Amino acid sequence: MIERDAHGGLRIGGASLAALLEAAACGTPAYVYDLDGMAEALADLVRGFGDAPHLVAYALKANSAGRVVRALAEGSAGADVVSGGELALALACGIAPSRVVFSGVGKRDDELDAALAAGVLAVQAESVEELERIAARARALGRVARVSIRVNPGLEVDTHAHVATGHDEAKFGVAEADLGDAWSALERNASTLALTGLSSHVGSQLVSTDTYARAAEQLARLARSRVAAGAPLSFIDTGGGFGIDYGSGCPARPADFAAAAVAAVRREGLGHLTLVVEPGRSLVAPWGLLVASTIAPKVSRAGRRWLVIDAGMNDLLRPALYQARHRVEPLVGAGDAPRAAWRVVGPVCESSDDFGTHDLPAEPPGAVVLRDAGAYGYSMASRYNGRPLPAEVFVRGGQVVGCTPRASADDWVRDRLAT
Length: 419
Ligand code: LLP
Description:
It is a single chain. By secondary structure, the chain is of the alpha/beta class. It folds into 2 domains: about 160 residues, Beta Barrel (Lyase, Ornithine Decarboxylase, Chain A, domain 1), CATH 2.40.37; about 230 residues, Alanine racemase (TIM Barrel). It has 12 helices and 21 strands. The longest helix has 19 residues. It is elongated. The chain starts with a strand and ends with a helix. It binds ligand LLP. The site of ligand LLP has 21 residues, from helix 10 and helix 11. Ligand LLP binds next to helix 10 and helix 11.
């Protein structure tokens, strides 16, 4: 639980964030994660399924820190992986292969081989061509590949264009008009391909369940006709994308998406199938903070006020890439001190390295916190501008249980010199 105390100080699991950071002594910029909050988010989502058979396949791309993946796996999560690296990490974190789905529009042969050798629940085929490639790899390995077809439902969703994935122009999934070809490919390769599920993922940061529910209904309808045609389906995967409240609201709760998917499969008489969902963001984003130190304020004669902090777009790319807004707050409470509008910016040499204008104490705080940074923060970080990757601090039960210090500039210099 991340909350503010009576003096305005941030607390994680009851402990002062400032004190936790001092104990961790890992410097800034630093991501701080509340593992208990993540575990509770998973338990909340699971309640949304009621008694329906389900598998929460955590999308590792959101946050692949081992402690995060293990905390969710302990809470019964499986994994949605999109690369050989994520597959290996999920398995190394103790997730059973039968609880892993392998998604992604461009899986290489070596990645398909690793997934088939591990025996994942399904390789989610994104095209008819990919089905043929999976069949070829299964033949080469002497195995039968469990596959699902990722259906592109042809639906527009209300989210940022970069993360909408279920419309006709998107590179993802098989359009309904092409499914006949997919069924033929499955028949042609019946000795190497076993269709065990159907899947879709319409987009990320969905703030309403409407489109998600429509896609789930379409999947359930298609699944019913496949079952009638004799396919021994075991699951329907309605994807992830459950939105969170970054400060401008998100009426739909993660459990509402689960309930919508349950309703869709039950309506088609498929309540016995396992419902798979692939949430990333909603399980981790609100329980991660990016802590940054103020490098210097900069105030112009024209009255512009910039607060230059030591975290940049290389540490948290979302504002630059999606015009995303993360709330920025002082690390320690400032009481009734006068406030001012500060444009919070990072040190990177790009104008998009800008976290937006925030109401902060007029006397600039020594350190600030960017909220809701637990998803797609560290996992999208880079070393652009010769900046080392940020630190990560893990908190459980109000205690620091792990800390990876910020990489050093020397490491970067050594790595680049070696090229
Ligand atoms: N399943 C598939 C097939 C996906 O492509 C994704 C996300 C997920 C599940 C998990 O979606 P989530 O529950 O996290 O919304 N970097 C962007 C988000 C990119 C999402 C990519 N795919 C951001 O920072 O907003």
